[in-house]
Amino acid sequence: MSLKSLDKDKLKDTAMIDLAIIILKDEKKAMDFHGLYDQIAEIKQLTPEQKDDLFVQFYTDLNLDGRFLTLGSNMWGLKRWYPVEQIDEEITAEPKKRKPKRKRLRKRKLLTTIWIWKKLYPVKIPRKIPFWMTNLMTKKIMMISMMM
């Protein structure tokens, strides 16, 4: 099926994605997105307002449709033209899982709290302090610092 074989009424009723496939088949090469969209808008006789409204929708449809392939630099072609080995779609590796920084901050906060507590109250503090106790210590230190 080519553009010449279809009548104008049928072309106007055809979906933009289907028109893109027909145009790319006729051209037999990858095309720039804007050039492709301008040809479709010309075929469908879209007004400038309609053209602006449908621009984003067409780009979204092109991305979601599995028959198209972006070649970079806003060039689009049909996926079946390219063998699987030639397709250079970006595949991002999963990021390495890191330990959350929260534990480091919690430990630093604990050590700071204990240091201040020792300066304020020269009492022997047990080596392992429950977390709830450090929160109480921090609150008390804050109250004392506000009073000063």
Automatic annotation (TrEMBL):
GO terms for cellular component: DNA-directed RNA polymerase complex. The keyword Acyltransferase does not apply. InterPro entries: Asxl_HARE-HTH, RNAP_delta_N_dom_sf, RpoE. This is RNAP delta factor. Gene3D superfamilies: RNA polymerase, subunit delta, N-terminal domain. It comes from the Bacteria. The keyword Heme does not apply. Belongs to the RpoE family. Residues 14-81 form the HTH HARE-type domain. The gene is rpoE. Keywords: DNA-directed RNA polymerase, Nucleotidyltransferase, Transcription, Transferase. NCBIfam families: RNAP_delt_lowGC (TIGR04567). GO terms for molecular function: DNA-directed RNA polymerase activity.
